[in-house]
Amino acid sequence: MLFRRLLTSTAGRLAVRSRLSFPQSSLGQFRGLITGRTNAIPVCRGYLGQSYFKRRFSVSGLLRQAAAVSNPPKTLLNSSKWVGYWLIGTSGLVFGIVVLGGLTRLTESGLSITEWRPVTGTLPPMNQKEWEEEFEKYKQSPEFKQLNSHIDLDEFKFIFFMEWIHRLWGRAIGAVFLFPAIYFAATRQTSSRVNRRLFGLLAVLGFQGFIGWWMVKSGLDQEQLEARKSKPTVSQYRLTTHLGTAFVLYLGMIWTGFEILKERKWVKDPAKALEAFKLLDNSALRPLRKLSLGMLALTFLTAMSGGMVAGLDAGWIYNTFPKMGETWFPSSRELMDPHFARKEDKSDLWWRNMLENPTTVQLNHRILGITTFFSVLALHSYCSRRKAIVPKAADRTVKLMMGLVTAQVGLGIATLIYLVPISLASIHQAGALALFTSAIVFAAQLRKPRVPMKILVGGLHVQQSKQAGSKILSEVSKLAK
């Protein structure tokens, strides 16, 4: 009798460990085990299987089970939560450098450092002699000769420090990203999938440093300036590429960090994760999911058109709204000025005016900004009519987007009307990235979980089997008394 009781208790524990849940009708069989009317061995074999029963009662089987529990396979699900926090924190530094880069552009400081020294350029000039040497290098640049020949050493120090801080911040982001990434990978706190993403982000980060110098070089090379028929300023194409790469880097960090934290939360509570999956798997959400990605692309495109406006100083013309001057639109002759075509057959007339004519570029930005505003308004209305199927978090985010896009349009109009004051223009650029952030979060909240369903179901079975197993053991204990 004692052997049967011990075997029954062991079988109950094995059931819990094996993620199996016993139906309520099984209690009768366990009563039979206690009273001796039922043989324990066939019951255990019936529930666990012949081979399973032998395997679980062997020492090697128990060792294999212990190893499987203590060394789970590395997947995205068990990447450390600190990896997620670190990525989101680093994205905050990227946000800061985008705003600082805008200030560097607005104060016309970007061409003050005429050399690219990734290592030795970490320190600024430390004495009067070094400052004078640095100033002499700047005096050889086209910007000084054509635009800033009136500035003295003290004024040069201001624009130098603006650019130096911008470059130093970029180096700091590189260090904050590289060394923790190596540590997390070396200590196996990241999955292979996350490692691939980190490697991709690191490549984008390194590429961004190269693009930064490539952009600055376009404003220092006299031959390039003559070919562009431009005053000493960086190419709007390279400036927008630099800005776009920063946005892509920011997107990758936010998305991956958000994904890690959310999926860890799902694995921790499989029941809620399965409920979330049911909600997100609703076919009625498919149009909204596509709209969220379209909104993300639209906010990105609008921000890039803002980069083109900044690169061409297009905000300094037509400082009225909603009209452009005395008319709603400039004349077609002004929008498609033959002056911007470089080929004799004028085959490049259209695209060069779209990307190089300040009037046309400003009109493009106005159209994209207004389109973004009404698109967010339509998205907000769409979600409001479908509250029953839209996740609550996504509904809150779209309301935030509505507030941000309204503020962003107001800032853009004020920046234009007041002739691009540095404070308003800088806040307007920060607002563009804030709106882009809300679009990222909204799209991520509507994304289906990538957690393998077998892991969620397995986790749910563990919870259920623990509950069922505890009930069985409690009942058996009562009967055994």
TrEMBL record:
Name of the molecule in the record: Cytochrome c oxidase assembly protein COX15
GO biological process annotation, one example: heme A biosynthetic process
Any one Gene Ontology cellular component term annotated for this protein: mitochondrial inner membrane
Lineage: Eukaryota, Fungi, Dikarya, Ascomycota, Saccharomycotina
A GO MF term: heme A synthase activity
Record has Oxidoreductase as a keyword: yes
Principal location: membrane
Pathway: Porphyrin-containing compound metabolism; heme A biosynthesis; heme A from heme O: step 1/1
Transmembrane segments: 83-103, 168-186, 198-216, 236-258, 293-318, 363-379, 400-420, 426-446
Subcellular location per the Swiss-Prot or TrEMBL entry: Membrane
UniProt catalytic activity: Fe(II)-heme o + 2 A + H2O = Fe(II)-heme a + 2 AH2
Alphabetized UniProt keyword annotations: Heme biosynthesis, Iron, Membrane, Metal-binding, Oxidoreductase, Transmembrane, Transmembrane helix
Pfam families for the chain: COX15-CtaA
Keyword Transmembrane: yes
Membrane-protein topology: Multi-pass membrane protein
Entry cofactors: heme b
